[in-house]
Specification:
The protein is built from 18 helices and no strands. Helix content is 81%, strand content 0%. By secondary structure, it is mainly α. The two termini are 37 Å apart.
Length: 472
């Protein structure tokens, strides 16, 4: 009898960690899809006749729909079961990846990327909900979060490297096709390894999902176009005003609805509001760092897409090792808040270091040390930020809380990147002569981008110090 019980316990233990591997693969794919298209953009532009200004929507269509629909994904996960929504999300992501890989026009590509964002918006909160329901022991949960955070960080950095390899040696279409076999494998293993968990009753507020997505899209679009339209132009002011009205209507509906998409009462949970703001600011500092580091490597130092990806590998490997082997132990010893604040300080310091990059710089002096420092900062901050945002949620609202923290991270990355890009372009254009952009002007813009991201990092640190209470 005891041998049988021991065998069953061992089987359950192994199944939990096998399930975690599936969930981490899902998180890897969701984040990878935000970065893998970066080095493929010139090839896509040439093949599908994108204008330079329209090209950015290959990135924005994915991130905006992902950020805008994550709340809906979290709500659906609570209502219909995390496993069901997880599988639906992968079905949509896999089919959308086929569409983008076969894209024949700008419209088909943008629609495919938006559908990829929708699939990922269902996957991300369902996966996080499943992780927290599988690992209930605090020590195991800390270790599981380490793998989870490492998979997210690896997805962002590996996407750059993998995109370079696929584009250079196969075709830009394979940066999308790669999701198809990965998606099929995840769905096959999910059928036996994942359990649905509890469900709650309620209705779906689709109007609210549309409102918050439209507001997010307008804000990002307005920020992207501010260099062309100007901050004080009627177009800029009008678009911001419309976005604000949409957000006010969204909040009014949540306040008066019997089944709101985002019950405002959830913000009474300890740390939830402050932690979500911290996650948004963290993303607003981290994503521009990754974006402009890649541009500095290629456009200033002259690296190819492939070697630019190779240059980012030390940062990727460091994040994976630190999140899996160190972050959980640091949280156990020093607590959530201390690690979060320390991580944000270190991340900000790396951005200050990057702001000193030069035209005649090199990898060892300008990139390696600062990128490893950024890896340490993100490794310390990302998991505690997520845990702080989830720790006070009620059991029946974990899907909603996970959708909310993923939303703020994605929206923060989109808005932060749009702000940083606008400032960097303004600096570069201001130093250009007769429309000619020199390498010096370009690098000055990169420096301004890193300085702006550092300011966002400082804001995130201040919010964490003042607003976060150490959760159990």
């Amino acid at each position: 009898m005891s041998n049988s019980m021991s065998l069953n316990a061992g089987t359950l233990f192994e199944k939990r960690w096998a399930a975690l591997a599936v969930l981490c693969t899902a998180q890897f794919m969701v984040i990878m899809d935000t970065s893998i298209i970066g080095v493929a953009l010139p090839a896509i532009q040439s093949a599908l006749n994108y204008t330079p200004s329209a090209l950015q929507w290959i990135f924005n269509a994915y991130v905006i729909v992902l950020g805008g629909m994550l709340l809906l994904g979290g709500k659906l996960s609570d209502l219909y079961g995390s496993k069901n929504i997880f599988l639906w999300g992968f079905s949509i992501l896999t089919l959308a990846s086929l569409l983008t890989g076969l894209a024949w026009s700008e419209t088909s590509m943008n629609v495919g990327r938006a559908l990829q964002g929708l699939g990922s918006a269902l996957i991300a909160p369902a996966a996080l909900n499943l992780l927290m329901s599988i690992f209930t022991d605090p020590k195991e949960l800390g270790k599981a979060f380490g793998f989870w955070g490492a998979s997210a960080a690896a997805g962002g950095s590996a996407g750059v490297f993998l995109g370079g390899v696929l584009t250079e040696y196969m075709s830009w279409r394979w940066v999308f096709f790669i999701n198809i076999p990965m998606g099929i494998i995840v769905m096959l293993f999910s059928a036996s390894l994942l359990m649905n968990g509890s469900k709650v009753r309620g209705k779906i507020d689709y109007l609210s999902a549309i409102l918050v997505t439209a507001a997010t899209m307008l804000i990002v679009y307005t920020l992207v176009m501010v260099e062309q339209n100007g901050w004080s132009s009627l177009t800029t002011i009008s678009l911001f005003a419309i976005a604000l009205v949409l957000l006010i209507v969204f909040i009014a509906i949540q306040k008066n609805s019997k089944s709101p998409l985002l019950p405002l009462s959830i913000f009474k949970a300890p740390n939830l509001s402050a932690a979500n703001l911290v996650m948004a600011l963290m993303a607003g500092a981290w994503i521009p760092m990754w974006f402009y580091l890649n541009l500095y490597l290629q456009q200033t130092l002259g690296y190819s897409a492939f070697w630019s990806g190779v240059a980012l590998l030390p940062m990727t490997i460091a994040i994976m090792i630190l999140m899996v082997g160190v972050s959980g132990k640091m949280i156990e010893r020093f607590g959530v808040k201390n690690n979060l604040v320390a991580g944000l300080i270190v991340l900000t310091a790396s951005l200050v270091w990057f702001s000193t990059v030069s035209v005649d710089g090199n990898f060892l002096v300008d990139v390696l040390g600062a990128s490893l420092l950024g890896a340490i900062g993100m490794s310390l901050a990302y998991i505690p930020g997520t845990m702080a945002a989830m720790s006070g949620a009620k059991p029946e609202e974990t899907g909603l809380a996970s959708g909310l923290v993923n939303t703020t991270y994605q929206v923060g990355s989109a808005i932060g990147l749009a702000i940083v890009v606008a400032i960097a372009i303004a600096i570069t254009n201001g130093l250009s002569i007769d429309g000619t952009v020199s390498k010096e002007a370009l690098t000055e813009g990169f420096q301004g981008a890193f300085r702006t991201a550092a300011i966002i990092g400082v804001l995130g640190t201040l919010v964490a110090v003042v607003g976060i209470k150490s959760p159990k």
